[in-house]
Design brief:
The chain is of the alpha+beta class. It folds into three domains: 3-40 and 50-71 and 104-178 and 282-360, FAD/NAD(P)-binding domain (3-Layer(bba) Sandwich), CATH 3.50.50.60; 179-280; 370-447, no CATH class. The chain is built from 14 helices and 20 strands. The strands form four sheets. The chain has an eight-stranded mixed sheet with strand order 6-5-14-15-16-13-17-20, sandwiched between helices. It has a six-stranded mixed sheet with strand order 8-2-1-12-19-18. A three-stranded antiparallel sheet has the order 3-7-4. β15 and β16 form a beta hairpin. The protein binds flavin-adenine dinucleotide.
């Protein structure tokens, strides 16, 4: 049994606590915020997330799948909204598989409660980590104006994109990069009808792709939706930016021009736009993810990514599952070995999902409205139907499988090259379902193994 300190009781810290406590370790979780089950720490930031296959694999392994499933809404397709309000439904898979919408706050509260049920877990809120001794595992927290010292055998930094644990690691031999993308985001809530029914299909992820910016909406269990507007901070010749949509009049014009069908769904959309904060999006890559077999990073602290694949948390949950598997393999008293292997296995996957997520941004804001892209999706679905063992579209590899992100990324690039050739076949629009096209793709697959 080891004494474990988890710095950060967010989405990943909560699940990690469950995994490690179920193995018999004495787990203490410290979070700088108040207890989200008692105070509204998410006020004004009600982001919805999607849980997908990898997330479920980890939640199941930790024994909390059902507790989480109860607070989710299944989502089977993308529903695009064009400027004239025309809808187009594109299923996520040929076999009706779903991703699951969940409120960030609800999920956080649920996992903390699951962790707290275990006798060997202690939760400490309003404890801000200000220092970690990377050799001894002693952490220093600020709590009510006091400094609290906490000894541990192993420390996990699950304290998010701006991790204090990582900051301490950065004082040593540490590689780090931080990149802000040009797009920021703002939340828009779409309420349910007065009788509680949803105003849009709740089993779709709604996207308003506008080439250089976009809005999306995910269902809540109460019939409403949480929308997110992604837009450059600074406008260009091609696109508006948050910098030029500042006044009520500018916002009215902006939504009227680009998202007219969203206005009846959220009549106060302009007020919300003016009231809600504008947040930025950052990509963080770093190495190593562990030092001295004693202190390790997990979740966003190790790999903050842009949210366009909806995989940040799922990747963090997969980190937890991989760590648990390594503990099964190498034992619970062999932390140096386990953490070294954990970092070696997960770092390339963290980098791959960062790249994949940037790529999916282009797909969501731009390509989903492009006829060529839609044709490609149809061809890929057809190929998968004919040869499920040979062709699994990239989206399915990322969202509906446990294939390592780094392998999915490599395979996705190979698919791109093949599809480029296929889409260039004269008359492909008419013959995409033909045996000739399928045969040609299978030939290309074999030639490029
Ligand atoms: C707009 C948006 C949409 C997203 N959608 C999805 C999605 O659909 N699916 C998905 O999988 N992911 C999504 N993500 C990503 C997801 O939110 C993150 O990957 C996830 O929250 C990471 O969890 P975490 O526990 O590592 O970090 P966090 O959730 O950030 O939690 C970190 C915790 O550490 C605490 N903390 C911070 N500093 C300290 C300190 N010094 N001392 C003590 N405690 C500290 C914080 O209070 C917090 O509780 C989205 C992100 C954004 C921004």
């Amino acid at each position: 049994m080891s004494r474990i300190t988890i710095v950060g009781g967010g989405l990943v810290g909560g699940l990690l606590a469950v995994f490690l406590a179920k193995r018999g370790h004495a787990v203490k979780v410290f979070d700088r915020r108040g207890d989200p089950r008692r105070t509204d720490v998410y006020a004004g930031r009600s982001i919805n997330l999607v849980v997908s296959h990898r997330g479920w694999t980890a939640l199941r392994a930790a024994g909390v799948e059902e507790a989480v499933r109860a607070i989710t809404v299944p989502v089977y397709a993308r529903m695009t909204h064009d400027r004239d309000g025309r809808l187009n439904r594109v299923p996520y898979s040929i076999d009706n598989r779903a991703i699951f919408s969940v409120s960030r706050g609800e999920l956080n509260r649920r996992l903390l409660s699951e962790a707290e049920k275990l006798p060997n877990v202690e939760l400490h809120f309003d404890h801000k980590c200000v220092d970690v001794d990377l050799h001894t595992g002693e952490c220093v927290f600020e709590h009510g104006g006091e400094r609290v010292l906490e000894e541990a055998d192993v420390v996990f930094g699950s304290d998010g994109a701006f991790s204090a644990v990582r900051q301490k690691m950065m004082l040593g031999r540490f590689t780090y990069s931080q990149e802000y993308i040009e797009h920021d985001y703002k939340e828009i809530a779409f309420p349910a009808n007065a009788d509680g029914t949803p105003k849009m299909d709740p089993h779709c992820l709604h996207i308003w792709p506008r080439r250089f910016f976009m809005m999306m909406g995910l269902a809540n269990q109460d019939g409403g939706f949480t929308g997110t507007l992604f837009m450059p901070n600074t406008h260009t010749d091609q696109a508006p930016g948050f910098d030029v949509v500042r006044t009520g009049e500018q916002a009215r014009r902006f939504f009227g021009e680009h998202f007219p069908d969203a206005i009846p769904i959220a009549p106060d959309i302009v007020d919300q736009y003016l009231r809600n904060p504008q947040s930025s999006l950052v990509i963080i890559r770093c190495a190593p993810w562990q030092v001295n077999g004693r202190v390790a990073l997990i979740g966003d602290a190790a790999h903050a990514i842009v949210p366009f694949y909806g995989e940040g948390m799922n990747a963090g949950y997969e980190d937890c599952k991989v760590l648990n598997d390594l503990l099964n393999e190498y034992g619970d008293d062999n932390w140096a070995e386990v953490l070294t292997r954990y970092a070696a296995e997960r770092k390339p996957n963290g980098d791959a999902i960062a790249d994949l997520s940037l790529r999916n941004f282009v797909e969501m804001r731009d390509l989903v409205a492009d006829p060529k892209f839609l044709l490609r999706k149809k061809i890929e679905g057809h190929l998968q139907q004919r040869h499920p063992d040979k062709w699994l579209p990239l989206y399915s590899q990322v969202k509906f499988s446990d294939i390592a992100y780094k392998d999915a990324w490599k395979e996705g690039l190979r698919h791109d090259r093949i599809m480029e050739e296929v889409l260039a076949i004269p008359g492909i629009e008419e013959k995409w379902e033909s045996a000739e096209v399928v045969k040609r793709v299978m030939g290309m697959l074999e030639a490029t193994v």
